[in-house]
Structure formats: C-alpha cells, structure tokens
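On to my pick:
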Amino acid sequence: MTYPFGIGSWRRYFALQKGVAENWYGSVQNSSLSGTLTLIREYFGAGISSPIHSSTPTLASCGGALLVGLAIWASRNHLKRARDMNGSSIDLPFALFSLLSVFLNPWVWEHYYVLAIQPLFVITTEFARFAHHAYRRWSDTESSNLVFGLQALLTTVVVLALGTVAFALSRNLWNPLWYLDAWGTSREPLYRAMAYLELALKVSPWVVSILLCFIALRARRNVRA
C-alpha cells in the first residue's frame, strides 16, 4: 500500500479505522485478549459503555507485550536447537506465535478459529510424545512411581483441556447472544450465568491453546534433559 499510495495512505487508513474500532472493539463476539478483558470487567461489574475509550486497550497492549516476551523467553532453547541440530524443534514456537498473532489482535471473530487447527495438531502430537516418553521411562524403571503419577496427572489435565477446546469449537456461535437477550428480557440470573459461560467458551480455544503451548515447551525441555 505504501508504494502505490504513499506514506500518507496509512494516516488515512487509521483515521477510517476509528469508526470500525468504536463499533466492534467491545462486541461480545470479540474473543481476542481485548475482548477477554472487556468480558472480565463486565462480569465483575466494571463494565463500561465504550471499551475503546477506557483503559482496556492499554491493559491489552501491556498484556500482549508480556505474552510475547514470555513466548520469546520460553522458545529460546527450542529456536537454538532448531538452528543447530533439529529443525522440528521449531514446531512448538511456531504454534505458539501463530496463536498469539491472532489472539493479540484488537478483535478476533469466530471464523478465525480455523487458524487454531494446525497449532492444536502440534500440541496434541507433542503431548502424545511426552506421554509415551514418560511411560517408557517408568516401564524401564528409570523414573519413580511418584514422577510417573505426576506425569500421568499432567497428561490427564491436558486431555481434558483439549476436550474443552473441542467442546467449545462445537458450540452454537449464537448461544451467547441468545442468553444475553433472554437475560435482558427476564433479568433471570441463570441466563446471565449461561451467557458468560458461553462467552468464556468462545475465548477458551485461544487461551487454553496458548497455555498448553507454554506447558508443552517446558515439558519438551524436560524430556530433552
């Protein structure tokens, strides 16, 4: 865009984005980090009429910078190994940064879920490898029953987390709006609780997948050790 239209085109682009941001930044369909922070503030009674003009963008920017910094730190050994020894070591860092590149956008819609599929395959494969390694070490009496029990517990938690992601991706995308409309009409607390549960499920594919990436990076480091 810069070459054919000049540097001034960016100023015009950002000026035109103002109306879009004001309209969609606080949408209940937004499952980005910004949308997650807005959801949390609204649930605990700190909701505001215009999130784009609140402290939410600043909090989201700081949180995003922190997540990127943690991702770089957690991936440093894997990136070095990918350069020096094993190219497949890039898989987990790539999955993590792929997820972050979506989640840290100002807004994330339902059709963006397709971008989580490849990272989820990487995560699943990595934990399957971890479980196999743990079982092999235990069966060869190279690890204690306690260590194997903790590793089995971690594997169980991961399976439940992946199941939660699969369940969230299978939900009707319009459920939160239906519950919010029902709550606005009847003021029944159950509808409000169900609405926020559905909204939490909308965010969970990104939050859970990113968390599992961090855990997998640590687990693979321990396996290598």
